[in-house]
């Protein structure tokens, strides 16, 4: 009789972390933050559960309580991550324009600048909606000040790289932030479509750049 094999069957490979595998605090936190960002694309924040997040992250749901204490703390750290994503994407886009200028000295067009805004707008909007939800849920608004200021100063630095003086750069970025907040906070109540909003903003954006 052939003896039975004592070799254990190979485990199914998965791109996610197994909930049974211990992972470091940093890795678990990053996995949960990335999972939340992904889920926000498909589910309203009010409907997202710890089970949804932990399943998407591939880690045990107890990590949320262990490392964030509450869902609100997790969502607050997600807003920080979203701010960093916007900053990184903006720098990447502007650096391409700067390299283009060095290769062939020309002014950056309004269309190119507006394209940079449109590239980061969905992420910025996601952060704004999340911040609004957290503030309405009792999280102090000043929790988001430091990261928001950091993002603002980074945007000003980018504008300065394109040739704007600091005062003008600050005015332009404040204008863009104001318009984004208006879009996130008010336009849904009027029933405007995204296309209508973007067309209107493109006109005001062009006027602002030309002044």
From TrEMBL:
Transmembrane segments: none annotated. Residues 26-86 form the HTH tetR-type domain. The keyword DNA-binding applies. The keyword DNA-binding applies. Keywords: DNA-binding. GO terms for molecular function: DNA binding. InterPro entries: Homeodomain-like_sf (IPR009057), HTH_TetR (IPR001647). Residues 1-22 are annotated as: Disordered. This is Unannotated protein. It comes from freshwater metagenome.
């Amino acid at each position: 009789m052939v003896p039975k094999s004592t070799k254990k069957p190979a485990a199914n490979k998965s791109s996610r972390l197994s909930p049974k595998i211990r992972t470091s605090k940093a890795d678990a936190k990053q996995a949960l933050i990335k999972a939340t960002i992904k889920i926000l694309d498909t589910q309203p924040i009010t409907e997202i559960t710890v089970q949804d997040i932990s399943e998407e992250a591939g880690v045990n749901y107890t990590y949320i309580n262990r490392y964030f204490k509450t869902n609100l703390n997790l969502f607050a750290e997600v807003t920080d991550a979203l701010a960093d994503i916007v900053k990184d994407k903006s720098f990447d886009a502007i650096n391409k324009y700067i390299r283009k200028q060095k290769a062939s000295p020309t002014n950056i067009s309004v269309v190119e600048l507006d394209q940079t805004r449109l590239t980061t707008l969905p992420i910025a909007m996601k952060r704004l909606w999340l911040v609004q939800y957290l503030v309405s849920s009792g999280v102090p608004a000043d929790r988001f000040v430091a990261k928001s200021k950091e993002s603002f100063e980074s945007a000003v630095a980018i504008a300065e790289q394109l040739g704007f003086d600091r005062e003008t750069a600050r005015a332009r970025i404040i204008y863009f932030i104001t318009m984004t907040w208006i879009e996130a906070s008010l336009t849904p109540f009027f029933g405007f479509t995204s296309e209508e909003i973007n067309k209107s903003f493109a006109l005001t954006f062009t006027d602002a750049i030309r002044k």
